[in-house]
């Protein structure tokens, strides 16, 4: 039969193992975080270019489908065009700076 002391010991072991598992996961994934963040940022930049390409004068084969995404992405547009190295907005009829 188990008593309260055994339960407390088992609970302490579970807590310690949980912390050790968390530490091991963090130690394993830490070197890859930067690469994953860069890859995600590159994908986001490509997606923003695809969505706003017709406004910049580039033909967009899926322009009809990306048109409804423009209002949703307008708040991220300023950060995106500055990250791409454009000081001012590349759109003639839209000023964000």
User: Which range does the strand content fall in?
Assistant: under 5%
Number of helices: 3
Distance between the termini: 72 Å
Overall structural class, as computed from helix and strand content, comes to: mainly alpha
Summed over residues and divided by their number, the pLDDT gives a mean of: 85
Low-confidence stretches: none
Topology as a string of helices (H) and strands (E): HHH
Radius of gyration: 25 Å
Task: Count up the domains.
Answer: 1
Percent helix: 55-70%
- 3D shape: elongated
Number of strands: 0
Largest sheet: none
InterPro entries: CC_star_Cory (IPR047717), DUF7990 (IPR058303)
Pfam families: DUF7990
Keywords: ATP-binding, Helicase, Hydrolase, Nucleotide-binding
Organism: Halomonas eurihalina
What would your notes on this structure say?
This protein is mostly helical and 97 residues long. The protein has one domain. Helices cover 69% and strands 0% of the residues. Helix 1 (4-52) crosses helix 3. The protein starts with a helix and ends in a 14-residue tail after the last helix.
Which descriptors apply to this entry?
97 residues, mainly alpha, 3 helices, 0% strand, elongated
Produce the secondary structure layout.
Blueprint: H1 4-52, H2 63-66, H3 70-83
